[in-house]
PLP-dependent aminotransferase family protein
Amino acid sequence: MGALAHRPKLYEQVAERLGDAISAGTLRPGDRLPSVRQLSLRERVSISTVLQAYLHLESVGLIETRPQSGHYVRRRERPRLAEPLVSRPVAAATPVTVSALVSRVYRSAHDPRIVQLGAAWPAPELLPTRRLYRELNALTREAGDAGIVYDLPPGCPELRQQLARRSLDWGCALSSEDFITTCGASEAINLCLLAVARTGDTIVIESPAYYGTLQAIESLGLRALEIPSSPRSGMELDALQAALERRRVAAVLVVPSFSNPVGSCMPEENRKRLVAMLAERDVPLIEDDIYGDLHFGPERPRACKSFDTTGNVLLCGSFSKTLAPGFRVGYVAPGRFRERVELLKFSHSVATATLPQLTIARFLQEGGYDRHLRTLRRRLASQVERMVEAVAEHFPEGTRVARPSGNSLLWVELPPRVDALELHAKALDAGISIAPGPIFSARPDSYRHFFRLSCGHPWTPRIEGAVSTLGSLARSLA
Amino acid sequence: MGALAHRPKLYEQVAERLGDAISAGTLRPGDRLPSVRQLSLRERVSISTVLQAYLHLESVGLIETRPQSGHYVRRRERPRLAEPLVSRPVAAATPVTVSALVSRVYRSAHDPRIVQLGAAWPAPELLPTRRLYRELNALTREAGDAGIVYDLPPGCPELRQQLARRSLDWGCALSSEDFITTCGASEAINLCLLAVARTGDTIVIESPAYYGTLQAIESLGLRALEIPSSPRSGMELDALQAALERRRVAAVLVVPSFSNPVGSCMPEENRKRLVAMLAERDVPLIEDDIYGDLHFGPERPRACKSFDTTGNVLLCGSFSKTLAPGFRVGYVAPGRFRERVELLKFSHSVATATLPQLTIARFLQEGGYDRHLRTLRRRLASQVERMVEAVAEHFPEGTRVARPSGNSLLWVELPPRVDALELHAKALDAGISIAPGPIFSARPDSYRHFFRLSCGHPWTPRIEGAVSTLGSLARSLA
């Protein structure tokens, strides 16, 4: 709402105020909203503006219309599905072999005939495209040659300045000199892995883990050691500690905030303990904070980096999940590995594209980012909620889903007899993409009855239909 | 001339026609040009337009004014300097350790107080910035969301289509499916190294070699085996053959066209022999063709890839040296390693920035690229020529320079007593950056009395003065 336009339309403003009241709990599930006439008087807007606002709130799933009765805040019934249990990965470091499966998942990602429940990307209509383009066009008028020359490491000073400012929100107080900009968080993580590990070394990760990270570990000749993880609180630190006592590891890589695929969020006390445990052993922590801005609750989680007193934490992030995936702008604050990461950045891609960085720096400076994030978070929360309800309605008994408190992913555990690879194949035949569980482990026999659903797209009857089809397919396989 | 503006000014058109006549040899060194009045009549332009055209040609070093006599095509005296000999690197594969020196070189690269003779980049005023910006702005009006979403591997179809068309100029007939787009040629080369080699493997390279490539080899835990190379014809194939018989190598990496730093160009028969030699032994050839479009002679060299019948050649290139370094748009045609390189691209940076690729695709499609290249090549050739003359004039006896037939780099061999690292340090103190020889070898004790000069900037009295200062410093160290 209002994210795309520089100045939101009147009905969007009205809808946003109501949405805020719902988020804040001022209006609660089941509450009756003011009548159209009441609200029109109170807000001093026309009847049709109020109707538009209500229609909009209904379309994003925040309210519902009851015939002859009025508009109500939508009830969030506690869905009847249980959550998956803490994962129990095999306790040995293994080479990674997920690549072939992964390419099958992303190759259909831009096919408009496919209902996209596979890839973990925000729908473009949730992003402030027009404002970004406007900043970009202004830059080409004002920046002269600056937009075409190399922006050498550590990268765009204007962007690093804005990152330093934002790091206060993460509980850190980093300076622009602490950052190096990168081609998205993926490059940042690759550079960190190269900076801290040598071939054959072991990297500790959560289980399940993002397949891109698994592929990076594979391509660099490293080994992955998967640690049991809870769908609520992420990596189990007792299990980590036991693993660290048994073997030498080169680094621990975690996604503490709204991990991919499960959406877990590590509690603050765990973050603190994790940072201390690793600093004591001199094992670097690579923190993938790419989803940190997408919290559904009122507070952004503090980054692990905020507890780092020794430079042992390498914090990675990007704007690919909140502003513009195709701009390829990410960053890393590599702590004591700064010099090495900067040299690696130079030898790996020389520089990050200049204009996309300058554009995002301007966008951040103009102050539209926080407002955009508020809207984006509310919409993602609503989309996830709708997805949970739809899975509860359509999937066979025994299905479990994680309850993410941020991001836009849903980790679904099917009854044990249902093979997620079979479901993936049949779904693709039916024009629906999902991400099957085995791609989220270094061992392709893991998570055979799990899959990940993306809730990045606004809820539509087409998506509802796709979830219903998926449910039928799952039932037929059960 | 006319490279920046969509429609060149009148004087630029006149200057360009004369420049073409000089390049083609119709007007030869020492020839008198038509008088201002004659040319004004012949070209049907004003006297002041002709004067402007002559001034312009003089400023780029193509003609000279003799008082009371008129304008003449500038004589290219055969400079008195000899060329360096074929290199004689140590015949053992070594880990690479150049990184610390390299960062000292590039860290001053955007400092306007420093005369930039160190970095191998074209000056921004030689690039078609305004036209690129115009295409970019048109895209933001027309392309909608396409500019902000991920452009997943293999990358931008429009750009790959244009690359396929251009591959005819390289002697290849590649299809758009043969290409994967990348964040510059550097990323392409890193992906190729990862695709063909495992840690500890040996990569054969020319000697001297580009420091970025050496760093990439270092960061991936590979070893470099440097092969003797001629400043004229590049890698010595007999030496390569002997090396291949002695040891197992994972790949050969060459820059056959206008290599960095020496500017050598491998003859066509050598390219053919190289490709056959490696195909027979099943050793992949990574061909870095980043400078291929910058030939001074009339013909673009054929790519090694054009002799490839088995998919054994991985061809890498980019638009960083010809259009826009800061756009970070490169490509690879990985032959039989296509699938592996595509997966690596995904795990390493997910995608290449979308809008820069679309912008370059449009620029190529509109047909301005060849015209731009003609102008760029002529200017680079002229800048290199001026630099050779200035080195001949200012440097101590015993100095040698390579004679590049393309690109914009000059490899200078000082008398053996002069230490290039000392020269580099003293030059930086004097506000001049150069690239000292040792960074171009895996062994930092190599090329101690060599350095590389960049001729990427239009000739100015400031540059002339810097070369004179460098010469004095070299003499004082001799």
Remarks:
- Residues 5 and 149 of chain A are 31 Å apart (CA to CA).
